[in-house]
Design goal:
318 residues; alpha/beta; Rossmann fold; 2 domains; 11 strands; elongated
Length: 318
């Protein structure tokens, strides 16, 4: 919670002053009562004493005062609302290591299912696109609100070749910065990048990430796989088993350089959950919502309740 007028909270100093005044007033009344009857005779003179009721109205009124002071400071809380216009580029690694079946049904298969989960949870007003890369990036579907078009672009993907993460980031950044909304204004964009390793060809991925950040495009990276991943590579007439362990260090650096977040996933179920969460996170923005009226109304109700109790029980306000 934040406040539009935080200096008003200085008024909380009034609360202990009021408590001090109340205690002093009670002592004055006690001294006045002693003038008419000694402490030994007080129970017989006034057998029905108010006990806790004497102080209840003040406690309610102090709570009311605290609420009114907070309300006067114009408190605001952050509320998540759907993005009305934005774009996300799903950037998927389809290099040969994505054939590995250490993540079922395969790293690439799990990535495709996660993309579908992402699309299902992304607000309909946000555009989504698909870019794949091995040694060369390719835009499979430009950002669009047509979810069926993006899902269709996910079919038929095959894993092969090397890994050019930097080139993929640069292309995705160019696509997103070229998008325009009503009035020709550029719309906000983000990249969700999934890979299982380190870039081995093309441009520097960290430099590409820093350029994306300059364009206000955060990159959320997902490192998919396990240390035990392998693929089968045909060499002449022989099939060789080649280890392809997960390497997520560079992906974490990319996310940090671009102002995003990094995730490491070793199974398809968790991957789909993360993608669904990312869709909700990216598809919403936080706005400040002022709650002054609610607090002021509560404070006034408490003030009325405290005054009513005092009048009902004692025939006075305090």
């Amino acid at each position: 919670m934040s406040f539009a007028a935080p200096l008003v909270l200085i008024a909380f100093a009034l609360v202990p002053l009021l408590v001090w005044w109340y205690v002093a007033e009670q002592r004055r009344r006690e001294r006045g009562a002693e003038a008419f009857a000694s402490a030994q005779l007080r129970d017989s003179v006034a057998p029905e004493r108010p006990y806790w009721r004497r102080h209840a109205p003040l406690v309610v009124m102090l709570l009311a005062l605290a609420l009114l002071i907070v309300a006067a400071a114009r408190p605001r809380r952050s509320v998540a609302v759907p993005v009305t216009d934005g774009a996300v580029m799903l950037v998927n690694d389809i290099s040969s290591s994505m054939q590995s079946t250490d993540v079922k049904p395969s790293r690439l298969g799990a990535a495709i299912e996660a993309d579908r989960a992402f699309l299902a949870h992304l607000p309909s007003s946000v555009r989504a696109g698909l870019l794949t890369f091995n040694q060369q990036p390719a835009v499979r579907q430009s950002p669009t609100t047509n979810r069926a078009a993006v899902r269709n672009a996910l079919t038929g993907l095959k894993a092969d070749g090397h890994t050019a993460i930097g080139d993929a980031i640069n292309l995705a950044t160019r696509v997103l910065t070229g998008l325009r909304g009503p009035g020709g204004k550029r719309i906000p964009g983000a990249i969700v990048l999934l890979s299982d390793g380190t870039s081995d060809v093309g441009s520097d991925p960290r430099a590409a990430a820093r350029n994306a950040r300059k364009s206000h495009i955060p990159i959320y990276t997902v490192a998919l796989g396990t240390p035990n991943g392998t693929i089968t590579v045909k060499h002449g007439r022989r099939n060789n088993t080649v280890p392809v362990p997960l390497s997520g260090t560079q992906l974490g650096q990319i996310a940090s350089d671009a102002g995003g977040k990094a995730f490491t996933v070793a199974n398809a179920g968790k991957l789909a959950t993360i993608y669904a969460s990312l869709a909700t996170q990216i598809g919403h923005k936080h706005v400040k919502h002022e709650i002054t009226a609610s607090l002021a109304g509560g404070g006034l109700l408490l003030l009325l309740a405290g005054s009513s109790l005092s009048l009902l029980w004692f025939g006075r306000l305090l």
